[in-house]
Design brief:
Helix content: 25-40%
Number of strands: 14
Largest sheet: 12 strands, mixed
CATH class of the largest domain: Alpha Beta
CATH superfamily of the largest domain: Periplasmic binding protein-like II
Strand content: 15-25%
Distance between the termini: 34 Å
Radius of gyration: 19 Å
Amino acid sequence: MLAAMIAVATASLSIAASLQPSSDPRVADLVAAGKIRAGLGIGNHAAAFKDPTTGEMQGMATRLARALAAQIGVALEIVQYPRPGAVFEGAQNGAWDVTFLVVDPLRTAAADASPAYMQSEFTYLVPAGSKLRTVAQADRPGIRIGVPRGDAVDLSLSRILKHATLVRAETQAAGIGLLRSGAINAYAAPRSALLALSAQEPGSRVLSDAFATTRWAAYVPRGHDGWLAYVAEFTERAKADGMVARLIAREGLRGIDVTPPAKPQLTKPQSTKSE
């Protein structure tokens, strides 16, 4: 049941008290509601995660959602999912107003995406002693590759793999548990996430090549062209004024870069200082 998979935070995250609600007609309905709902899946620093001490949501997607809410001048309400790939289960029933996720054709068929704001690569983490050296060597009969169920890496490998078997985990922690136990031969994710995980798994390696380039974008539900235009301007401005680069550094995201601007120039820039 979808309701059993989603926990909606009732408390709003903080916004700058000095900000006034936006007068932009494209987000007038959000201003009238007094909030924007961000769909966030528990994953890693490039997406969202819970602070182990406070339980507060953190991560790149969380910080972008906070900054967007602050710019509009409304509260942020988080609609929480157990993993990033589960967020799109709420795309059809209006469960959220915005999300920040890896771009995939199946997702852009279900919701509208802004220009990308950062990019990385999909590759594999292999355990100590593994003979796998390239992504091509992993696509062989008998090789088992772990992926978070429904995440973009799952969608990508479902199209790419010819011989290897995908083993889908319900959470990233469960996927790493499969690798640690020997139930899978490799674990697939964005390079940035794997570099962080490799530091926690002695002897493990992140392969040097990749099977796909991945990009992150903001999504809004279909039928909200005004929201899409507003959010697209927000992400482009966040790239141009350095906010995306600062957040990448703040989250310690190795192997991730800011994408080039989608437009040659932004007009009427507005502040995106809240991070």
